[in-house]
Each structure stands twice: as C-alpha cells, then as structure tokens.
Amino acid sequence: MGDEILIKEVKVENKYGLHARPAALIAQTAGKYDCEIFIEKDGNKVSCKSIIGLMTIEGYPGSLMQLSVSGSDAQEALDALVELFVNKFNED
Amino acid sequence: MITVKQLMDEGAERLSLSVITDPAFLNKKIPEISMNRPGLALTGFFQYFANMRLQIFGLAEFTYLKSLSDVDREKSLRAFFKHQISGIVVTRNRKVSSDIIKLAEEFRVPVLRTSMVTRNFVNECTILLEKLTAPRERIQGTAMEIMGIGVLLRGDPGIGKSETALSLIERGYSLVSDDVTEVRRTSRGRILCWANEITRYHMEIRGMGIIHVPSLFGVASIRRYTELDVVIDLKAPSGDEDRTGVLPNTTEIMGVKIPCITLPVRSGRDMANIVEVAALNQKLKELGHDAAKELDDKVINRLMKGRVAHG
How far apart are CA B59 and CA B40, in angstroms? Predict the structure, then answer.
C-alpha cells in the first residue's frame, strides 16, 4: 500500500497564482500528513512541504501541475490538497 | 497619587532639591502632575488658579514680591497659601524669606529649593513626574535586549523561556528581566521593560536552581531597561503557525500594539538562534525591508508575466 503513488493533475485557478500565501497554505496542509507529497510542473519537481520550493515552480494562473503522493495517508492528503486548488486557495 | 516626598526621594539629586520647611509636610499630595508659575495668583487673580500643581517661584515671582510693601506682600502670600497649595519649589537657590517660611509652617505646605534655573527645573521635573506617575504593570515574560532590539519572550511555564534566554546571554546579548517583567508606557508610546527590584538579574533554570547572571557572565550580560520592539511567543507546535511571515501579527501591551511572532518549540530546535534571527528580521522590517513581502511581490510579478506568456 505504501509503495503506491497516487497522481492527480491540478490547475492553478486563483488570480495571482502560486505566490507566498497559497504556497504557505499548501505547505501547511501537506505538513499535517506523514506521506511524501511532491508537485511537478514542466519537469520541475518539488516537495509540497517546502514553501520556498513551491514558489520556484512558477505556478502562474491557469497553469497545470501534477501532484504525486505516496505513503500511509496518501489519499487523505491528496484530497485535502486538491480541495485547496479547487477552492482557489480561498482567495478571490 | 504621588506625594512631595516621593518626588524628593526620586529626584533630590537629579533636581538638586533640598527641603526648607519641616520634613513632616512632605507627605502632601500633588493631585495634578504638573507645575504652575503662580505669578498671576500673587497679584490677586485666582480665577483658573492651578493650586493642585506644584508651584514654582522663579525670578519673576521673587521680583514681583520684592516690589510690594511688607503689608501687601503678607496679604498677597496669605491669599495664595489659603488655596491649599500642594508644594512650592524655589529656583535659582534663592533665599526663602522668613514670611514665606512662616506661612508655609502655618499652612503646612512643603517648600523645596533647587539650584537649577526655572526652565531647566521645569523640564527635568516634568520628565521625573511623568516617570513617577506613568501607569505600570507587571507581566509574565522574559525581557532581553538583542543588538539594541527589545524582545519579550512569553510562553507557558516550562516551555523554555529561561533556557532560551540563557543561550542568548551566552551569545553575548543582555538580560533585562527573567519571567516577571515590569512595564510602563512612555510618553512616546513605547513600552519600557525592566526587572523587579528584588529578583533583578536572577534566573531560575530548571534542574539547576537560581543563578545570578552578572556574576556568571559579567556586567555586559545585563541591562537595566529596554524599549520593547517585538514579542515572541514560544508555543508547543500546533501545525497552524504562519509559515511565510507575510501576515503581520501584533499583541497589545498597555494599549500599545507590538509586533508578535509565534514560534513553535520542538526538541532539537535551537530556539536562541531563531529568536535572534526573529529579532533581527523585525529590525529589518522596521527599516522598511520586509523580506517575506518582497519575495511575495517578486513571485507574483513573475507569475503575472507567466500568465501573459502562456495565454
């Protein structure tokens, strides 16, 4: 079970893209889970638990990226993160 | 309400004050924390006479009294003394004439004398009176000065305030007070911190007991006062901490808003190092350089360009 990697494509839909506040929100949410969580865009892959990392992947508004999650609580973590993207990080 | 005695106790040296009349009169209260030049009152005009303030006899008052005949002089002074005067200060080391002393004894009014000129005395005395009467409070927390930045460490008992303070002292910073801090609001709207007289510069370290900081670390390890710049709350980790520092947070002490940072304490985390950086970062923010906000602006700027480029 732990070796399975869950993958899901998400879209940045808020006005300003992945800037500090959404990055902090993602990192904070990801930090609550034990599983490994990565996000990938255009070949750049960073940990979702790192704010600085999240700000380097240039998640401009409208861009697509891939979440990949593996570990014991992977499904819950994925659901929580997808919800953040769908809710536009509670912005706008 | 402060008494003339408190003013004497605190300011006798600084204000070069000496007592002319019976020291028993010194327990007279000063209801209005201010000074008054009673020139007009001495001429017989008592409307709006600020009798609750400290009365200052300067060159003008003396010259006026000298111009009167003995009878008029006694009449003028008696009318003045009848207004329940809280205290008189004679400046320029003027000799206090016997009729003033006689009336002061009769009305039990303390008369003080200073060698200072009126203007300087009024300035210095205003500062001292304000200091004596400013509202003060005692709060929980350890106050330190880190490179000129006043820091108050707060947190539940046992979270490691004193241990963090000790590491900061070892790094060469100064302790103001441990665990219990006295604070007052200054006229410039800042919060001044100092230690309780009795326990000053002592610290309690769990498992070791009480230590005397300057004996162990030298006089550079302590400071009498510091003006508070930032409050740091040490907390058990909750997972909800601000992770960017973009959101400004403040706490209120005696009605003054002070920037406040919450730091989660985990074992193995060097709290002293983090507090040191937090203090420096706060100073940087005050100088107009907010690292978190600047990075965020930079990222947003770039993201907006990306949106244009990719449709």
Answer: 14
